[in-house]
């Protein structure tokens, strides 16, 4: 007879492993099916290793000194291979072992295999040595996503996705990146700081097209300061490999761009194609995303889905949030996915963070929306840290003063955005924030200053 599992989770990324731990805490007997390393894309080949390399890049950049601060250094040596070894062993491996330990501590069984549905109650688990069938009471699909591949590109060891670039052994002299979204922009800046000649190629009219134009404009200025080249409204037409080099033919450019490595970062697609969802009766949208209700439940009552395989931003923390909700629902709790604001951060320098609604989105939603913008150059801690450009912007409803959204550009933007996400989730007004005491001098003080600006009595502006 087939083995019967209580709660089975497909995938062990920030959605899968969090769902497993929360479900186990609630008394469920949990099994995780993972075909690759524990931790999924985010931990192994995405969020974590990319931030580790950004840390390396920033430390290297600082090592060259700052004459304005009186810091002068001699020659600086950089061993890229050592940096990669540190990233893999001291960061990724350490965190992977940590997640593995948490699963074990919570009594979660882990099976190394690929999973596909035979029907609404049975999975086929496949390995290199064969396959077996297991039945389940509940299933959570947390299979994540994969980079989109451009079909016209030739097969070449020099053409990489983000996973490949994060794991190269030698620093490329000339690097081109197609796609200037979150991933493309972060890695472009990291490799530029580490010494590569970087060209960003973006099909829309600006880098970071998911952000407002004044935000992407500040990041573009910083990129130009590093000597990076940016080709916007540009389309890659063809790639030829000659003498161990790549020749990139770009629409509207007479001469090909010659590089050593090319990274493609034009988006990601949900890992739903090989799951056999049709055999289980799970409905999927035209874009390959699994349809769910407010409890994460699919069209099949005992099958749930979270993270990149469902609609919404493909963010690790979104997957983790949905994971906890679904684990509670399976345990009989009346939990629903009901967030008001989903923060998003791009870890470039300057750092960029958003949450809630933009001004345009708030107006479309029917609010009498306004926004106030406080420049970070007026923030004492920013000035003391040697920074300047950037801002805190708050979108609020003029009638109720409720905070509806925010955008931050500058140092530690990704940390500061949590204050405003909390404000939205707890229905705070700009007056509530203005009356909150922030430490001085601090970067977050700019949030209070902005709230005072919104109220009409700014102190530091």
Commentary on this structure:
- The strands form five sheets. Strands 1, 2, 3, 4, 5, 6 and 17 form a seven-stranded mixed β-sheet that branches.
- The model has no long low-confidence stretch (mean pLDDT about 95).
- The N and C termini lie far apart (about 75 Å).
- A hairpin with a 2-residue loop joins strand 12 (about 235-240) and strand 13 (about 245-250).
- The protein has helices spanning about 15-25, 40-45, 45-65, 80-105, 160-165, 180-195, 215-225, 275-280, 315-330, 360-365, 380-385, 415-425, 430-435, 445-455; strands spanning about 5-10, 30-35, 110, 115-120, 120-125, 130-140, 145, 160, 175-180, 195-200, 230, 235-240, 245-250, 255-260, 260-265, 270, 305, 345, 350-355, 370-375, 390-395, 405-410.
- About 30% of the residues lie in helices and about 25% in strands.
- It has 14 helices and 22 strands.
- It has about 450 residues and is an alpha/beta fold.
- The chain has three domains: about 5-145 and about 270-330, FAD/NAD(P)-binding domain (3-Layer(bba) Sandwich), CATH 3.50.50; about 160-265, FAD/NAD(P)-binding domain, CATH 3.50.50.60; about 345-455, FAD/NAD-linked reductase, C-terminal dimerisation domain (Enolase-like, domain 1), CATH 3.30.390.
- The CATH homologous superfamily name of the largest domain equals FAD/NAD(P)-binding domain
CATH C-level class of the largest domain? Alpha Beta
Number of helices: 14
Distance between the termini: 73 Å
Mean pLDDT: 97
Q: Report the CATH architecture of the largest domain.
A: 3-Layer(bba) Sandwich
């Amino acid at each position: 007879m087939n083995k019967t599992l209580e709660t089975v989770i497909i995938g062990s990324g920030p959605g899968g492993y969090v769902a497993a731990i929360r479900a186990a805490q609630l008394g469920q007997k949990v099994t995780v099916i993972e075909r690759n390393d524990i931790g999924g894309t985010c931990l192994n080949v995405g969020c974590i290793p990319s931030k580790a390399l950004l840390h390396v890049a920033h430390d290297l950049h600082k090592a060259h000194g700052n004459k304005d601060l009186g810091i002068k250094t001699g020659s600086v040596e950089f061993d890229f291979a050592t940096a990669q070894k540190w990233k893999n062993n001291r960061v990724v491996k350490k965190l992977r072992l940590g997640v593995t330990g948490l699963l074990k501590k919570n009594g979660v069984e882990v099976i190394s295999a690929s999973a596909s549905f035979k029907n609404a109650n049975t999975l086929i688990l496949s390995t290199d040595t064969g396959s077996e069938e297991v039945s389940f009471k509940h299933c959570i699909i947390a299979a994540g996503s994969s980079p989109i591949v451009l079909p016209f590109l030739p097969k070449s060891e020099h053409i990489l996705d983000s996973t490949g670039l994060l794991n190269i052994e030698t620093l490329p002299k000339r690097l081109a990146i197609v796609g200037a979204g979150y991933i493309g922009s972060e890695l472009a800046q990291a490799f530029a700081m580490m010494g590569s000649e970087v060209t960003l190629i973006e099909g829309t009219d600006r880098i970071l097209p998911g952000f407002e134009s004044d935000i992407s404009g500040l990041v573009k200025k910083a990129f130009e300061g590093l000597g990076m080249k940016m080709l916007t409204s540009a389309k890659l037409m063809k790639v030829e490999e000659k003498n161990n080099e790549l020749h990139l033919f770009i629409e509207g450019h007479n001469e090909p761009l010659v590089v050593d490595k090319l990274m493609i970062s034009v988006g990601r697609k949900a890992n739903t194609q090989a799951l056999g969802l049709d055999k289980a009766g799970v409905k999927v949208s035209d874009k390959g995303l699994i349809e769910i209700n407010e409890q994460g439940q699919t069209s099949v009552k005992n099958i749930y889905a979270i993270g990149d395989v469902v609609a919404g931003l493909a963010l690790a923390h979104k997957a983790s949030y949905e994971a906890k909700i679904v684990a509670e629902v399976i345990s009989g709790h009346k939990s629903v996915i009901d967030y008001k604001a989903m923060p998003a951060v791009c870890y470039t320098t300057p750092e960029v963070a958003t949450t809630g609604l933009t001004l345009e989105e708030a107006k479309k939603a029917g609010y009498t929306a306004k926004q106030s913008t406080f420049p970070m150059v007026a923030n004492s801690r920013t000035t003391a840290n040697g920074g300047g450009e950037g801002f805190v912007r708050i979108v609020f409803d003029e009638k109720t003063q409720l905070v509806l959204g925010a955008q931050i550009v500058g140092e530690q933007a990704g940390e500061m955005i949590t204050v405003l996400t909390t404000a939205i989730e707890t229905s705070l007004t700009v007056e509530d924030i203005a009356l909150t005491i922030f430490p001085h001098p601090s970067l977050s003080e700019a949030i209070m200053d902005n709230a005072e600006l919104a109220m009409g009595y700014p102190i530091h502006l």
